[in-house]
Amino acid sequence: xxxxxxxxxxxxxxxxxxxxxxxxxxxxxxxxxxxxxxxxxxxxxxxxxxxxxxxxxxxxxxxxxxxxxxxxxxxxxxxxxxxxxxxxxxxxxxxxxxxxxxxxxxxxxxxxxxxxxxxxxxxxxxxxxxxxxxxxxxxxxxxxxxxxxxxxxxxxxxxxxxxxxxxxxxxxxxxxxxxxxxxxxxxxxxxxxxxxxxxxxxxxxxxxxxxxxxxxxxxxxxxxxxxxxxxxxxxxxxxxxxxxxxxxxxxxxxxxxxxxxxxxxxxxxxxxxxxxxxxxxxxxxxxxxxxxxxxxxxxxxxxxxxxxxxxxxxxxxxxxxxxxxxxxxxxxxxxxxxxx
Length: 340
Known about the structure:
It is built from ten helices and nine strands. By secondary structure, the chain is of the alpha+beta class. Helix 7 packs antiparallel against helix 9. InterPro entries: Acyl-CoA_dehydrogenase, AcylCo_DH-like_C, AcylCo_DH/oxidase_C. One of its GO terms (cellular component) is cytoplasm.
């Protein structure tokens, strides 16, 4: 299925990107035409309604990231729809959705607060996970936010206030919020690797075409070393993300194996963002920093996504604690810790 799915996503992504040339900006606007095509193709709720596994979802998310798709597919399928299903809360049968995560300290029956930096807050219903030490409170909120901002790539972000005293709320275990954050971290790793692929492809093409001092840039040894470093970071990130994907396929996102693998992937991918994006822009020269160039669509997404669902430093600290807690830290270095 993966090959057919990959070809389908590639075709849809390319057509959408070509149709939006010159229309990307700050902020990005929700691509309703692309969403309609994806929804008709059954790709907007692939795992929650079509029974696909994380490997198939990774094909969709990575493919759409390569074409800077302005649609919240990860938020809708991997996160919001899944979370609503865990709580058995009614949600629309179609259309985009998003998810919000907030830490709360419940006072009596009231659960209030504000979810910060919610992705695509106006695109559709917001499925909220308000987490405390003892529980995860899940509710479906109307779309909207108190702020109108965007990340470096122009994707909408906003703060969503909530008061669940007058809303249908389902109380679940704290582990649900943990799995939700893990799913989000995994999705961002997949998307960043997709953005890396674009940065690498564009840079390789540029240094092959650009002539300097009578020679193409790609013939200079320093440029070749830079490209080797770039490719090394990309492939390290891909390997770590593939490990996380298949840990989720084999054991589920709620497993210790997936917990370890996603944490390691978020560290590997997050640390690669700076060298990959820096090298790509350096080798492109001045044209690589303009809004009109495709490169910034990839690199700015990678830089923005790296800090979502836990920063690189947060995951690195967590990975270190896993090693310290293990009976034999070497087991953590060479593979996932055994099940308790």
